[in-house]
């Protein structure tokens, strides 16, 4: 089902709180650790990329 123009669910990123991002980071790290050795390399790359993006987002910013 397509979103109509101006609908809140249409083509917007999901905003998450810091606690939700920390939980997502923990879940992604667990998922990466649980991958089988024969898992696709592209899956590993996408998980590590998302983990790195979340870690940089959660890192304290230097002024």
Describe what this molecule looks like in 3D:
- The chain is 54% helix and 0% strand.
- α1 packs antiparallel against α2 (41-58).
- The chain has helices at residues 18-33, 41-58.
- The longest helix has 18 residues, at 41-58.
Key attributes of the depicted protein:
single chain, 63 residues, mainly alpha, 2 helices, 54% helix
Offer a concise description of the structure.
Residues 1-23 are annotated as: Disordered. The protein has 63 residues and is mainly alpha-helical.
Mean pLDDT: 86
Uncertain stretches: none
Task: Give the radius of gyration.
Answer: 16 Å
- Principal-axes shape call: extended
> End-to-end distance, in Å?
45 Å
Strand-and-helix sequence, N→C? HH
Binned, the helix content reads 40-55%
Instruction: Give me the secondary-structure category.
Output: mainly alpha
Measured by DSSP, the beta-strand proportion falls in under 5%
- In DSSP terms (H or I, runs of 4 or more residues), the helix count works out at 2
Q: How many extended strands? A: 0
Query: Can you summarize the main beta sheet?
Result: none
């Amino acid at each position: 089902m397509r979103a109509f123009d101006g609908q809140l669910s249409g083509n917007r990123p999901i905003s998450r709180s810091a606690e939700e991002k920390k939980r997502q980071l923990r879940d992604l790290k667990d998922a990466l650790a649980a991958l089988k050795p024969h898992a696709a390399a592209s899956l590993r790359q996408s998980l590590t990329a998302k983990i790195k993006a979340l870690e940089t987002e959660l890192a304290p910013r230097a002024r």
